[in-house]
Amino acid sequence: GQNIDQPTEMTATEGAIVQINCTYQTSGFNGLFWYQQHAGEAPTFLSYNVLDGLEEKGRFSSFLSRSKGYSYLLLKELQMKDSASYLCAVREEAGKSTFGDGTTLTVKP
Amino acid sequence: DSGVTQTPKHLITATGQRVTLRCSPRSGDLSVYWYQQSLDQGLQFLIQYYNGEERAKGNILERFSAQQFPDLHSELNLSSLELGDSALYFCASSVKGTSKGYGYTFGSGTRLTVV
Hints:
The complex is a heterodimer of chains A (109) and B (115). With 109 residues, chain A is mainly beta. Chain A contains no helices and eleven strands.
C-alpha cells in the first residue's frame, strides 16, 4: 500500500513563494502528480514527475527525489486565487493513483 | 468543462436506499476511476475500469458496485446507504490505464447526502 504525508495547512503572503512538501512510502511507483482543488470543486492536474529533478511550468514547479521518497510543489508570485488545497498523488500500477489528504494553502494580502 | 460528465450533481436520499451515480469519460479516454471524498478527508480510491473491464479495486465496500459499459460510460451503485456514505463522489478519466505523464481529468462530482 501507499503512505503519503503532506502538511495539513500553510499560509503565505501574496507575491511570495511557498513550497509544499510531500513524502511517500510505496510498494510501487510509476510517477507522482500534484493537483489543485478549490473548495467544493474537482481537482485539476498541475504537474507530473517520474524522474528525479525539477519540472517547471510557469509559476508552478515540482521536484522529485525517488531515493528519498520526497517531492515538493513550488508556487511563485503567489496570487489570491492560489488559495486552494494541493494534493500529492502517487501512481501505483495500472494507472491507479493514491492521494494524500491535501495541503490547504491560504494566501493573504 | 473538463469533458468528464457526472450526473446527478446533487443527491439527497434516506438511509437504506440505493442510488446510481453516472459518469461519462472525456472523449478518447478508456480508463474511468471512482473516488470518494468525505468532509476533511482526502480522495479515497474506490475502483478503476479500463475499456469495460475492472482493472483495480480499492477499499470499496461490498454495498458498492460499479461497471463500465461498451460506450465507456460508467455507473457506481451504492446500496443500503448509511449516514457515513455522505460524501463527494468523483469520477476521473485518463487516456490510458498506464499512460505516463497524463494526469486524471475529474468530473465535477456528485454530492451525496444521506439523511
